[in-house]
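re: that chain from earlier
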Amino acid sequence: MVLPQPLVDARWLVAHHDEVRLVDCRWYLDGRSGRAAYEADHLPGAVWVDLDLDLSAPATSADGRHPFPTADLFAASLSRLGIGQETPVVMYDDACGSMAARLWWMLRILDHPVAVLDARTRSRYAAGDPTIDPRQGHIPGAKSAPWTDNVSPDGTLLDPASLRTRFVVAVGRRPHAPRRHRPGLTTAQRWVPQWSTNVTSSTGRRGAGANSIPLV
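^ sequence. v structure.
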């Protein structure tokens, strides 16, 4: 099965629910339990993925808080989730896709069929370059494009035309402009809308606190 685009909506999911593996990617920076949120309420048929245990290796001072897991660990996690080599995967969260995009990116670089559900709630059905300076800031000449501005007030992504305008304004017309994000984890959220608008940027470098992220 070929998924239509990096994003699918609730109507598409209803029509193809039995053809995909649905993954709940809820995880919270403030310490709340994604597992508890999943157990309290989740979309029918969804399985829950643990960002810390399934999608990341243990945190280290060298690799940051959420480095990539080993290939064996990731393969074991996918097997436990019922995801085979040809299993189309649709993932969701309740944070505008910022958590789901982590799994989307990890599977996308393996050329796996994958998409993010563009809905907020149930009702809506790196390279090895060293860190130059551990103090966080911005690269000279960089332009700010916060990931939160990719979404509308109801939590869904902006339409492709609006996203493309936003990214072209941010990076100009350079087809492979590099990007960087401070915490690292939510950088993947930018890849989903950029991929859908054909505005791409280069694979990144390591920044403070983040090794396995697509940024510079």
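The longest strand covers residues 21-24.
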